[in-house]
Amino acid sequence: MPTLRQLEYLVTIVDEGSFTRAAERLHITQPGLSHQFQALEREIGGPLLERLPRTVRPTPAGRAMLPHARAALAEADRATTAARRAAGLATGELHLATLYSISYGLLPAALGAWRRRHPGVRVRLFEHRHAEALAAAMTAGQADVAVGPPPAGWEGTVRHLGTEDFLVVTHTDDPAARSDHAPGVQLADLAEREWVHFTPDSGLADVLDQACAAAGFRPRVAVRTEQAPAAANYAATGLGPTLVPANTIPPHFHGAVLRPHPPVSRQLTAYTRTTPDPVAAAFLDVLADQDLLTPRHIRRRLRPTTPS
After folding, report:
1. For position 180, what pLDDT does the model report?
2. Cβ–Cβ contacts within 10 Å for residue 164, how many?
3. Residue 270 phi/psi, 5° resolution?
4. Beta carbons of 266 and 207 less than 8 angstroms apart
5. Which is it for strands 242-245 and 157-170: parallel, antiparallel or unpaired?
6. Residue 114: exposure state from Cβ atoms within 10 A (0-12, 13-18, ≥19)
7. Burial group, residue 69, by CB count within 10 angstroms (0-12, 13-18, 19+)
8. What is the DSSP code (8-state) at residue 115?
9. How far is CA 119 from the centre of its chain?
10. Comparing 267 with 307, which gets the higher pLDDT?
11. The pLDDT value given to residue 308
12. What residues form DSSP beta bridges with 147?
């Protein structure tokens, strides 16, 4: 059976694209690395890498083995960290995975509170474009805790954080922002507009498309971007309306912020593969204590309203 060290050799050689650079990174001699890697290939029963003139490329067997090797190394690292935490040998490191929009909107205040409570515990952050990619990364062992929409059929621990509201952003001179019903707007009234949309691989693109479909139309696209803050800024300059999480809109934002009708929201959770260790459990408690989903400055801008 391959050892963790051999798996580390495979991952490092692929990442560096060279036996020479991998040996330097691993602080071993190149002949020693080659010898150990050949032993791994004999164990597997075939080549894992194709040696090219200037680089290496995984064979089909190497590609099949690589994600499992990465997951095994990540799990071993977390096992060591967990043991050190329990033994009081180190302050530890929290590995946290989330979506880009949540990283910008919800996490800064949460991580600030975490730092004040646990200044000795470092945080390593992994960001993803889509909830499916986030769940897949957690399944593969990337992080201790994920913050995002609840994954379907998740077998580990799931803590519900609450509902994240989405808001329409547009230019302050937009007729929708100057109507008697502002700061609310019927999405169907925006059916003929060109929208500031999101790149297709972003989960925010799915949220916008689904909200518009529920209102009976498919949004036309003025421009696409990957990030919610950029979309809000583009919309505020008059490129077209957009739909972003409320917590990504900063204080003193210069655009118009409108509550969509029907409402658009998503459930947010924090989830782990197994029972959270003490550090992960402490971070879940921080998330539960934070009033992060709809910040106060946004609530102040939105008075209750129901368009007719």
Report:
1. 66
2. 23
3. -115, 130
4. yes
5. antiparallel
6. buried
7. buried
8. H
9. 23
10. 267
11. 41
12. 98, 270
Could you tell me which residue, 29 or 218, shows the higher pLDDT?
A: 218
Q: How far apart are CA 244 and CA 294, in angstroms?
A: 12
The pairing of beta strand 93-99 with beta strand 122-128: parallel
Angstrom distance (rounded) from CA 10 to CA 25: 13
What is the arithmetic mean of pLDDT over 163-167? 92
Q: CB–CB of 228/245 below 8 Å?
A: yes
Q: What is the mean pLDDT of the chain?
A: 87
* Residues 158, 288 contacting (CB under 8 angstroms): no
Residue 211's contacts (CB-CB under 8 Å, 6 or more residues apart) are: 166, 187, 243, 260, 264
Cis amide bond preceding 119, omega within 30: no
Task: Please answer whether residues 238 and 121 qualify as being in contact, where contact means their C-beta atoms are separated by less than 8 angstroms.
Answer: no
pLDDT above 60: residue 307 = no
Question: 76 by DSSP, 3-state: which?
Answer: helix
- The values of phi and psi at residue 198, to 5°, are -120, 155
Question: Which amino acid appears at position 106 of this protein?
Answer: L
pLDDT surpasses 90 at 168: yes
Residue the block writes with tokens 């059976």 = 1
**Collapsing DSSP states into helix, strand and coil, what is residue 131?**
helix
Q: What is the mean pLDDT of residues 21-29?
A: 87
Among 167, 157, 177, smallest CA distance to 269 is for 157
Q: What is the pLDDT of residues 55-89, one digit of tens each?
A: 899 999 999 999 999 999 888 877 776 665 654 43
For residue 126, the cross-strand partners are 97
Band the pLDDT of 289: cuts 50, 70, 90.
low
Alpha-helical regions (H) of 30-91:
30-44, 60-87
* Full-model pTM: 0.67
- Both tokens of 303, joined, read 């008075």
The pLDDT, as a whole number, for residue 88 is: 43
Helix and strand totals (H; E) in the chain: 11, 12
